[in-house]
Write a structure and sequence with these properties.
The protein is α+β, with helices and mostly antiparallel strands. The chain is built from 2 helices and 4 strands, in the order H-H-E-E-E-E. A 4-stranded antiparallel β-sheet has the order 1-2-3-4, covered by helices on one side.
Length: 97
């Protein structure tokens, strides 16, 4: 692969990735440290590491409902587990954590 081809491929990939980013008017992007909705349906045991990697920490539980808080973004997530999977992921105001 020539240097020119490699540069062209990198430029095309950058443009393609930039086109995938949607301006939501200030709302967090799905799967970002401020929105965890992409975790809905994930296996609970495997997804916990993903939450921690995004900066979340488990702050409390109530039965099968867990509250995760990200101190750096102020984001709070309420996650309900059913049959070993995250059946519901709801972003809440920081004070709810």
């Amino acid at each position: 692969m020539t240097r020119y081809t490699l540069i062209t491929l990198c430029a095309c990939a950058t443009v393609a990735l930039a086109a995938c980013v949607e301006d939501t008017g200030g709302e967090p992007a799905v799967g970002s440290p401020s929105d965890l909705s992409s975790f809905q349906g994930a296996r609970a045991g495997q997804a916990e590491m993903g939450l921690q990697n995004l900066g979340y920490e488990l702050v409390r539980t109530q039965g099968l409902t867990a509250y995760w808080f990200n101190r750096s973004t102020g984001a709070c997530a309420e996650i309900v587990t059913s049959d070993g999977r995250y059946s519901s992921v709801t972003m809440l105001p920081a004070q709810d954590c």
